[in-house]
């Protein structure tokens, strides 16, 4: 799962969430090279003709477009959410790919975890509510991962607030 619990100190725990990346950055060059090789196969029969020079810019534009799209996707998925739970405070920090980090903090006893099965931007939308504000958590996770996250958050908050 693209999230992990850690325990920086005995009385608090930390949850880090990040989007799933099926293609790591090291795989980008091989995908682009593979695409170029496959796209250039039809051009081999045109070597030595004028038609090759007419089609080659379009193949190169397609390769450049694929490279740009993969790079953009990777930049847009650099999201990190850090939830810190302690007996007296809950703090959520979201590091966005562009722009400043977003911060939310509340008293652990008053925090409510809600799972909106319908009506949110995604099914089983998980939110934390407290200190007069409701914030999303893990919206980039899959539906099954959000269900598991909701159950884990409820258990952890219940044990933190009771401590």
Walk me through this protein's architecture.
The chain is of the alpha+beta class and 163 residues long. It has two domains: 3-19 and 80-162, Roll (PH-domain like), CATH 2.30.29; 25-76. The chain contains three helices and eight strands, in the order E-E-H-H-E-E-E-E-E-E-H. The strands form two sheets. Strands 1-2-3-4-5 form a five-stranded antiparallel beta sheet, covered by helices on one side. A three-stranded antiparallel beta sheet has the order 6-7-8. A hairpin with a 2-residue loop joins strand 7 (125-130) and strand 8 (133-136). The two termini are 27 Å apart. The mean pLDDT is 90.
Descriptive tags:
163 residues, alpha+beta, 2 domains, three-stranded antiparallel sheet, 37% helix, 29% strand
Structural class: alpha+beta
Provide the gyration radius in Å. Answer: 23 Å
CATH topology of the largest domain: PH-domain like
Which strand order does the major sheet show?
Answer: 1-2-3-4-5
CATH architecture of the largest domain: Roll
Ends apart, CA distance between termini: 27 Å
**Secondary-structure element pattern, one letter each:** EEHHEEEEEEH
Summed up:
With 163 residues, this protein is of the alpha+beta class.
Give a topology summary.
Layout: E1 3-9, E2 12-17, H1 28-40, H2 50-76, E3 80-85, E4 89-95, E5 102-107, E6 112-116, E7 125-130, E8 133-136, H3 143-162
Helix pairs in contact: 1-2
């Amino acid at each position: 799962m693209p999230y992990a619990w850690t325990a920086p100190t005995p009385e608090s725990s930390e949850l880090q969430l990040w989007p799933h990346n099926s293609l790591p950055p090291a795989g980008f060059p091989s995908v682009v090279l593979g695409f170029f090789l496959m796209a250039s196969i039809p051009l081999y029969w045109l070597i030595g003709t004028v038609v090759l020079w007419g089609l080659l810019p379009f193949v190169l534009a397609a390769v450049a477009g694929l490279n740009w799209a993969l790079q953009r996707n990777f930049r847009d998925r650099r999201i990190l959410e850090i939830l810190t739970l302690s007996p007296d405070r809950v703090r959520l920090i979201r590091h966005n790919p562009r722009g400043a980090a977003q911060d939310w903090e509340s008293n652990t006893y008053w925090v409510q975890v809600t799972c909106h099965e319908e009506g949110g931007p995604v099914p089983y939308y998980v939110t934390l509510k407290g200190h007069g504000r409701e914030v999303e958590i893990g919206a980039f996770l899959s539906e099954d991962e959000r269900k598991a996250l909701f159950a884990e958050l409820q258990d952890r908050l219940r044990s933190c607030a009771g401590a």
